[in-house]
Specification:
Layout lengths: L2 H9 L4 E4 L9 H28 L6 H29 L4 E3 H34 L1 H7 L2 H27 L8 E2 L6 H6 L6 H34 L4 H29 L8 H24 L3 H22 L1
Parallel strand pairs: 1-3
Antiparallel strand pairs: 1-2
Helix pairs in contact: 2-3, 2-10, 3-4, 3-10, 4-5, 4-6, 4-8, 4-9, 6-8, 8-9, 9-10
Length: 322
C-alpha cells in the first residue's frame, strides 16, 4: 500500500457505524420494541433468579446446577451486550454506534457466545457421567473439576476471539459504514473492511467450525452413550427419570446449536440477512428467556427451593412489618 493510499484511508477512517436493524419493518418498530423489551426484562430477571437460587440454596450445590448458574451468567452477558442497543435503534431515529462501542459489543458477544457453546458440551459430559457412571460420578465431578471445565471453556473462547481480533487489527475500515443488522456482528463487519478479507473470513469460519462442531460432537457422543445405557435399564421408571434429566439440556442445546450453525458455520453470503437476523434474535433474546423455564421452572427441586424462598421472604417481611 502506497503512502498516498494510506493517507486517504486514514482521512476517511470510520469512526462510527450505522445499524440498519429492522428498517424494512417500519410499521412493526414499536410492537417489536415492546416485545423485545418484555422478553429482555423477563430473561434478565429469570436468569438472575436462577443464579441467586443456585448460589444461596445447598440443595442446588451439584455439578449440574453449577454449570447452569454459569450458563445463566452467560445469557445475561449476551442479552445485555446486544439488546439495549437493539431497543435504542427500534425506538429512536439514532441508529449509530461508535467504533469503540462496536468493538466492545462484538468482542463480548462472541466471547460469551463461544463460551456458552463450549459449556453446553461440558454439560453433556456431566449428564453422561451422571447416567452412565453414577457410582463414580461424585468423585469424578468434584468442585475442582467443575471449575476447571468452566475455566477451560472461557480459555478456549478467549483464544478464538483473540485470533479473530488479531487477524483484523491491521486492516482498515474506510467506508461504507452501514451494518445490515441490529448489532455489530462479525460477518457484516468483515464485509466493511477496505482490504482483502479472504484470510479473515477463513479464520472466522475455521474458528466457528472448531468451537461449534467440537461441542456438537461431544454432545452427540455423550447422548449416544446415554441412550445406549438408558435402553439397557430394566425399569421403565428408571428410563423415564434418566431421560427427564437430559431433556432440558438437549432442548436448549438443539436450539442454540441449530441457530449458531445456520449463522456462522457456512460461507459468508450463502443466505439472506433477514434469516440471519431471525436466527440471531433466537440466540440473543428468545433462548435466554426459555433457559430458566426449560431448565429450572419445570424442575421439582428448583420449584421446591423457589417456594421455600418465597415463604421465607414473606415471613421475614411480615416480621419486619410487625
Amino acid at each position: 500500500m502506497t503512502l498516498n493510499n494510506r493517507a486517504n484511508i486514514s482521512a476517511n477512517a470510520v469512526t462510527e457505524f450505522v445499524l440498519l436493524g429492522f428498517s424494512n419493518l417500519q410499521v412493526m418498530q414499536l410492537p417489536l420494541f415492546c416485545l423485545v423489551l418484555i422478553m429482555y426484562v423477563l430473561s434478565s430477571m429469570g436468569n438472575t433468579l436462577v443464579v441467586l437460587m443456585i448460589r444461596l440454596d445447598s440443595r442446588l450445590h451439584t455439578p449440574m446446577y453449577y454449570f447452569l448458574s454459569h450458563l445463566s451468567w452467560l445469557e445475561i452477558i449476551i442479552t445485555t451486550t446486544v439488546t439495549p442497543k437493539m431497543l435504542s435503534i427500534l425506538i429512536s431515529e439514532e441508529k449509530t454506534i461508535s467504533f469503540f462501542a462496536c468493538a466492545i459489543q462484538v468482542t463480548l458477544y462472541f466471547l460469551a457466545g463461544t463460551t456458552e457453546v463450549l459449556l453446553l458440551g461440558a454439560m453433556s459430559v456431566d449428564r453422561y457421567l451422571a447416567i452412565c457412571n453414577p457410582l463414580r460420578y461424585t468423585a469424578i465431578m468434584s468442585d475442582q473439576v467443575c471449575l476447571l471445565m468452566v475455566l477451560f471453556c472461557w480459555f478456549i473462547s478467549f483464544v478464538c476471539i483473540t485470533i479473530g481480533v488479531v487477524s483484523k487489527s491491521e486492516l482498515p475500515y474506510c467506508g461504507p459504514n452501514v451494518i445490515d443488522n441490529f448489532f455489530c456482528d462479525a460477518g457484516p463487519l468483515t464485509k466493511l473492511l477496505c482490504a482483502d478479507t479472504s484470510l479473515v473470513e477463513a479464520i472466522e469460519f475455521a474458528s466457528s467450525c472448531f468451537t461449534l462442531l467440537s461441542s456438537v460432537s461431544v454432545t452427540t457422543i455423550s447422548y449416544v452413550c446415554i441412550i445406549v445405557t438408558v435402553m439397557r435399564m430394566p425399569s421403565a421408571q428408571g428410563r423415564n427419570k434418566a431421560f427427564s434429566t437430559c431433556s432440558s439440556h438437549i432442548t436448549v442445546a438443539s436450539i442454540y446449536y441449530g441457530s449458531s450453525i445456520f449463522i456462522y458455520v457456512r460461507p459468508h453470503g450463502s443466505s439472506s440477512m433477514d434469516f440471519n437476523k431471525v436466527a440471531t434474535m433466537l440466540n440473543t433474546v428468545v433462548t435466554p428467556l426459555l433457559n430458566p423455564i426449560i431448565y429450572c421452572f419445570r424442575n421439582k427441586t428448583v420449584k421446591d427451593v423457589l417456594k421455600d424462598r418465597v415463604k421465607q421472604f414473606g415471613s421475614n417481611f411480615s416480621n419486619s412489618v410487625d
